[in-house]
Amino acid sequence: MPASLANETSGRGLSRRGLLLGSGLAGVGAALGLAGCTPRQAAFPALGTAPLPVPPLAPSRLSGNRRSFLLTAGTGESRLIAGRPEVVTPTMGYNGASLGPTLRARQGELVRVEVRNDLAETTTLHWHGMHLPAAMDGGPHTPIAAGRTRTAEWQLRQPAATLWYHPHPHGQTEAQVLNGLAGLFIVDDDASLRSGLPSEYGVDDLPLILQDRFLDATGRIVRVEGDNALGTIGGTLLANGVSGTHVEVTAALLRLRLLNGCSGRFLDLRFADGRPFTLVGTDGGLLGDPVELDRLLLSPGERAEILVRFRPGDRTVLRTERPQLPGTAVGGADLTPGDFVEFRAAGSLRPSAPWRLPTERRTVPSAAQAARTRSFELRMPFINGRPMDLNRIDAVVRLGDTEVWEVTSSDVMAHNFHVHDVQFRVLDIDGAAPPAELAGWKDTVPVLPGQRLRLIMRFEDYADDRVPYMVHCHLLRHEDAGMMGQFLVTADG
Ligand SMILES: [Cu+2]
Which one of 24, 123, 230, 416 is most buried, by most CB atoms within 10 A? Predict the structure, then answer.
């Protein structure tokens, strides 16, 4: 139903008339009394006039082995459209108007994060991809009321990885994430720091939080109600919170840490000139072997680390094509392709250093070790026929056990599957080995209609008889609608 003017008019040569037409149509929509229906999207061209913002590294205090951070969730005003300073959008952010700083810490450190809630509503803060005690996980059982503070503390017991943080209040996650609450958490370890991979943050090691927004004619963020099968899909594509930016590339080899931070949009990422890139990491950390790709599907919540080579003077654009989701009903979702960010290589580039992926130290569990197999059937808005209930435990896992989780979709909608606390491996998809981009450590995987995935994971270190971890679809509308379950990890299962 949305007219998606932003998509139709996103070309660089957009005329003044195009802009007027866009806002004029929006006015007509309002005059026709479409309130309660989907508002018309604003026509905001991607002008490419501003440099890509890079989330700052969060300051931290190191005392012995403990690294302490402070995050304050609050509201502000943001300029989401490069070159359109007059468009001011009310947003939410951590330690700023939108998104949040990048937290960075080393394997083995004790991390302590004081989370202050200056919003006018309850929130939580979940550490997506993190292996940590359930009581520190920031799920819906650990709300932070308006004006209150909650401190999470845990030891980093996992290898280098690009993780992220976002709110997880039951039923309100999509609204808060759309408003801007999200940030990255980079875990380092000795091996990753010695790997020779590009590592100068913001220069040749660049985080890219990729999101879409549905903006109304005044630039306000809209959470689209009941419009399609994926949740809110918008025609404005943001990289690190801003649409229409560019990167001045100064190195011949660029490491991009990609996060699909969208509510419901699957991204089929490619470079406009078709250049290949090297996948070196997925959700749970670096791969054993690099994988050469020229496109990458990322569903909401998934991350990837890629290396991209540039020659002096190169220009290209990171964009999403229309994702191929076989057999999937997307309803009215407008998945029109679009640009995230342009790369402009300088006339001379710092040459790349030799790099090598660290030897994998984690033991990959085998199905023969599994204590049991559990089944999860996805059918909107249920898992195994039941909606999320904060007072019901759906599974109790014994600490130390390896389990196979068999995830099937009997739905016509696209979903994905995210498990808190663990990083898992995909054993197979419909009986076949997973593609290379899903063969590393993962915490979130796409589950398309009719698919059957077998995941294997081991539950270590943390048991709690009372506080559960969550398992859910990471399409935020689906999660909010109840496509979520709860599992306990206990000493005796
Ligand atoms: Cu879903």
Answer: 230
Is residue 141 classed as helix, strand or coil in its secondary structure? coil
414: CA distance to ligand 1 center in Å? 6
Distance 360 CA to ligand 1 centre (A): 32
| Angle at 292 (CA atoms; ends 435, 48), nearest 5 degrees | 110
CA of 2 to the centre of ligand 1 (A): 21
What spacing in Å lies between the alpha carbon of 425 and ligand 1's midpoint? 20
Give the residues across from 58 on adjacent strands. Answer: none
The residues, any chain, with a CB within 8 Å of residue 205's CB and separated by 6 or more, are 197, 198, 199, 255, 257
CA-CA-CA-CA dihedral for 240, 245, 250, 252, to nearest 10: 80
The span from the CA of 92 to the CA of 99, in Å, is 7
Task: Look at the alpha carbons of 303, 353, 249, 105 in this order and tell me if their dihedral is positive or negative.
Answer: positive
Output the CA 90–ligand 1 centroid distance in Å.
28
From the CA of 483, how far away is ligand 1's center (Å)? 7
> Can you tell me the distance from the alpha carbon of 267 to that of 485, in angstroms, rounded to the nearest whole number?
25
Confidence at 37, pLDDT banded by 50, 70, 90: low
Parse the chain into domains and list their residue ranges: 50-193, 198-350, 367-490
Interface confidence (ipTM) of the complex? 0.81
DSSP readout, 271-295? ETT---EEEEEETTEEEEEEEEES-
380 CA to middle of ligand 1, Å?
7
Distance 418 CA to ligand 1 centre (A): 10
Q: Give CA–CA dist 59/61, Å, rounded.
A: 7
pLDDT confidence tier of residue 360, bands split at 50, 70 and 90: confident
**Distance from the alpha carbon of residue 479 to the mean position of ligand 1, in angstroms:** 7
Give the Å distance between the CA of 62 and the centre of ligand 1. 40
* CATH number assigned to the domain with residue range 198-350, chosen from the 4 options 3.30.360.10, 2.60.40.420, 3.90.1150.10, 3.20.20.140: 2.60.40.420
What's the 470 CA to ligand 1 centre distance in angstroms?
14
pLDDT tier for residue 8 given thresholds of 50, 70 and 90:
very low
- The number of beta carbons lying within 10 Å of the beta carbon of residue 65 is 10
Tell me, yes or no, if the two domains 198-350 and 367-490 fold the same way: yes
CATH of domain 367-490: 2.60.40.420
Distance from the alpha carbon of residue 227 to the mean position of ligand 1, in angstroms? 15
